[in-house]
């Protein structure tokens, strides 16, 4: 990529600002001063501003504890988006892995790795998503059995889920699709109503409960490897 794009994407400044830095000979690549903004560099190039190395990450993997009331979108609008909660110099490259409804909270992955995202969301990968579901009414054993058999909805029949009663009117539910309002529709079919929904796990990755709603952190190398093993 161009040197000016590398520096701008790393959050050093606008393309105009970093071009001025380059022309003023403040930038070195592999220890040599470079004065042309179109000089070619790669993610692993040693680029320095005033002899301080500038790092541009090729792949970024974040976990966000999504709060209620924000939408899973990359486009700004009248409603706050999950991307507005992320403070990262490469924010323009990032996007959510799938989506959570506006009133759903919990674990949402954020990345710039399209292949990683596609693989995790592909139906062929059968990566489970686990939710803590609060309900208007108590859940019966027959309801749990129906969830584990598959619920016939208007547009598809859900794959057999893993459903466990974890409290009064609370169910832990693992599903293997991600259809629009799927969990709400499954319980509506059973004559019940979801009153609160929180994603607690994506595949083998649990939500970091130390994250406050709206906070995010990098995934560890081990966490990324575990997710990649699923696909």
TrEMBL record:
Do you know which SUPFAM superfamilies this protein is assigned to?
Answer: Alpha-L RNA-binding motif, Pseudouridine synthase
Q: What class of enzyme is it?
A: isomerase
Q: Does the keyword Membrane apply?
A: no
Which Gene Ontology molecular-function terms are recorded? RNA binding; rRNA pseudouridine synthase activity
What EC number(s) does its UniProt record assign? 5.4.99.-
Task: Give the GO biological process terms.
Answer: enzyme-directed rRNA pseudouridine synthesis
Entry-linked InterPro entries: PsdUridine_s_RsuA/RluB/E/F_cat, PsdUridine_synth_cat_dom_sf, PsdUridine_synth_RsuA/RluA, PsdUridine_synth_RsuA/RluB/E/F, PsdUridine_synth_RsuA/RluB_CS, RsuA_PseudoU_synthase, S4_RNA-bd, S4_RNA-bd_sf
SMART domains per record: S4
Tell me which Pfam families the record gives.
PseudoU_synth_2, S4
Q: Which UniProt keywords apply?
A: Isomerase, RNA-binding
Family under the similarity heading: Belongs to the pseudouridine synthase RsuA family.
Q: What is this protein called?
A: Pseudouridine synthase
């Amino acid at each position: 990529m161009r040197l000016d794009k590398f520096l701008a994407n790393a959050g050093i400044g606008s393309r105009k600002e970093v071009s001025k830095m380059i022309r003023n000979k403040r930038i070195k690549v592999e220890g040599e001063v470079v004065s042309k903004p179109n000089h070619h560099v790669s993610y692993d190039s040693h680029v320095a501003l005033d002899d301080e190395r500038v790092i541009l990450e090729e792949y970024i993997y974040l976990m966000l504890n999504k709060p209620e009331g924000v939408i899973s979108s990359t486009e700004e609008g009248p409603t706050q988006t999950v991307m507005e909660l992320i403070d990262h110099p490469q924010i323009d490259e990032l996007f959510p892995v799938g989506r959570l409804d506006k009133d759903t909270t919990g674990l949402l992955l954020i990345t710039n790795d399209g292949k990683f995202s596609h693989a995790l969301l592909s139906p062929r990968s059968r990566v489970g998503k686990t939710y803590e579901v609060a309900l208007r009414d108590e859940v019966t054993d027959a309801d749990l059995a129906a969830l584990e058999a598959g619920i016939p909805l208007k547009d598809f029949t859900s794959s057999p889920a893993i459903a466990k009663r974890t409290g009064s009117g609370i169910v832990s539910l693992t599903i293997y699709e991600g259809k629009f309002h799927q969990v709400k529709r499954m319980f509506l079919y059973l004559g019940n109503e979801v009153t609160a929904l929180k994603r607690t796990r994506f595949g083998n990755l649990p939500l970091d409960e130390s994250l406050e709603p709206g906070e995010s952190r990098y995934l560890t190398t081990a966490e990324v490897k575990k997710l990649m093993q699923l696909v």
